[in-house]
């Protein structure tokens, strides 16, 4: 799937509040996607940095798009596990979300997501397991 197809899929497949996060598909390859995500003021918590919930939503969304890039289409799937490590705070104007399918079988798929800060430093690292329905 190309960048335009993945970008178009966001408002049609995801909940409106996910579409409102304004992800921009920057690059794609088989089983990979790179997104840019603005760090909106509504994502900032008391500490002045982006809240973990926004990062986890970004990771989960990017992985679904990476699965689409792997499969060549959308297939119903559900998140079974999302393990997230927060390595450094995220602030600034945007972040980069890179998702990669590690392995996909008939019923389960596994992936890895890196979220980078505006300086390109790894800020969040997540792994996922999806059940293909």
UniProtKB/TrEMBL annotation:
Q: Which residues form a coiled coil?
A: none
* UniProt entry keywords in alphabetical sequence: Hydrolase
* Entry-linked InterPro entries: ACOT13, HotDog_dom_sf, PAAI_dom, Thioestr_dom
Q: Which family does it belong to?
A: Belongs to the thioesterase PaaI family.
Matches recorded under CDD domains: PaaI_thioesterase
One GO MF annotation is: hydrolase activity
User: Carries keyword Hydrolase?
Assistant: yes
Domain Thioesterase intervals: 48-123
PANTHER family in the record: ACYL-COENZYME A THIOESTERASE 13, THIOESTERASE SUPERFAMILY MEMBER-RELATED
Q: Which organism is it from?
A: Roseateles agri
Designated name of the protein: PaaI family thioesterase
Spans through the membrane: none
| Enzyme Commission (EC) number | 3.1.2.-
Which Pfam family, an example, fits this chain?
4HBT
């Amino acid at each position: 799937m190309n960048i335009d197809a993945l970008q178009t899929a966001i408002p049609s497949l995801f909940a409106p509040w996910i579409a409102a996060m304004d992800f921009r598909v920057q690059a794609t390859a088989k089983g990979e996607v790179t997104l840019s995500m603005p760090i909106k003021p509504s994502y900032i918590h008391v500490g002045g940095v982006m809240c973990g919930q926004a990062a986890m939503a970004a990771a989960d969304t990017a992985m679904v798009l990476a699965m689409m890039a792997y499969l060549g289409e959308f297939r119903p799937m559900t998140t079974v596990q999302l393990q997230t490590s927060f390595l450094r705070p995220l602030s600034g104007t945007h972040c980069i979300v890179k998702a990669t399918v590690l392995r996909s079988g008939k019923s389960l798929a596994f992936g890895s997501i890196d979220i980078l800060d505006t300086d390109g430093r790894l800020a969040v690292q997540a792994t996922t397991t999806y059940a293909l329905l």
